[in-house]
Amino acid sequence: MYETYYELSKTPFRLNSDPDFFFTSSIHSRAMDYLLYGVSQEEGFIVITGQPGLGKTMLVKTLCEELYDKEIIVSELVTTQVSRNDIIRLVVSGFGLSHHGLSKAALLNVLENYLLSKIRRGKRVLLIVDEAHHLSAQSIEELRLLMNLEDQGRQLLQCFLLGQEQLKSTLQIPELEQVRQRVIATYHLEPMDAEETRQYIEFRLKKAGWSDRPQFNDDAFTKIHQFTSGVPRKINLLCHRILAYGYLEELNVLSAGVIETVGKELDEEVIAEKSTDKLTNSNIINFDRTLETRIRRLESKVDLLKERLRKERRLLRKALVMHTENNTEEKAEQSGKTIDQSGKSSDD
After folding, report:
1. What is the CA angle 201-205-210, rounded to 5?
2. How does strand 45-49 pair with strand 183-188?
3. Which sign does the torsion angle of CA 93, 97, 98, 101 carry?
4. Which of 57, 85, 255, 276 sits at a 20 to 30 Å CA gap from 300?
5. Ramachandran assignment for 291, one of left (phi > 0), alpha (psi -120 to 50 degrees), beta (any other)
6. Peptide bond between residue 214 and the one before it cis (omega within 30 degrees of 0)
């Protein structure tokens, strides 16, 4: 709803990964360089790690855009915790091959024939595993065994692993020594600094047609970095809420005070949700907690929900008003055109 108010062509801070909004920070550019280097090597593993929200999935989607029409067939897998037997089936399924009811040996045969047919037609095959930190050591070892598939000394399948920091720890266990020998490059993503956080925000705004409305004060950018620590997903979430707040309050300039207000609201919501999750997931009743304390917490949660509902109602009312005004203007324009046409006809 704030897009119309601020005359933006699209939503600048969506949480989904859109390659059109890929910001080439120094960190993400370096990670992309590693991925492209891996593609040029045509073998082994490339490993990219980083905490949640740093843009690993965005890297995958942007890489796929880069490789489009380059004779490289890419299969993207987003893993859950699967067994070593299921990982082969998941890979075969990822390439769109029949896998139902097949034994492991039959699955390997299907995959090898597929890879041979592609490489003999001048194509290459790349497997990208996102959320790879969910893989067990046994599953990663199964992927290594797929790296043994060759044709006249040429590796049939290459694999990139992207995941959270636990992936680094998993790869260090003794059982995965042969996997480590196949890793040709690794890179660990870090959050952006304050300057690149500002550049990231302005980049996404400009992609959405921003023309300095609303204006962000210099100290506003500093405050956003303090709240988000330079993590892109956190920046997107906070800036989306900031623009919604600016729209509700009809602000054309966003100051550090505005960011402070919205940031604290988000923090309170996160704390309340975590508290609720703990109470919901716990099977143990804490009898030491007094009734008065529990009532206060419930009242705080109710107040938070009331405030959120109040804001949503305000957004809805403003949207309805804008919709009505737009319709009225369109009808007035149409009426004016009709009168003009009638006048011309009578004069003729």
Report:
1. 140
2. parallel
3. negative
4. 255
5. alpha
6. yes
